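My current task is to audit a protein record that another person submitted. Please read both lines and tell me whether the tokens look consistent with the sequence. Do not assume that whoever made the record got everything right. I have pasted the whole thing underneath without changing anything:

===
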Amino acid sequence: MEQNKIEEKKEKLFGNEKNSDYGKQEYWEERFEEEEEYEWLCKYKDISPYLEPYLKKEDKILIVGCGNSLFSTELYDAGFENVINIDFSEICIEKMKKNNEKRTKMKW
């Protein structure tokens, strides 16, 4: 009985996702088709005081697995314009390119 309650709680929190799904491109394409924005860890403003002392405005910054996070957008808007974003999902990259058209130096 206890195990069923745990499973029900996991289902409510995480849906039917399994860690193994994260390695499948189809999972990400489907997710980003629907989802507009998601922050996995934190927003740029949360860690900028810790990062900025180590960054120069002209540094090349690679965001691996950028997803639909606003992290690179906020980084760019803080003056770090040499940002390169990569992601597994083509849908995500296309949406993010469109959402960031005015950030002309940002690369995808």
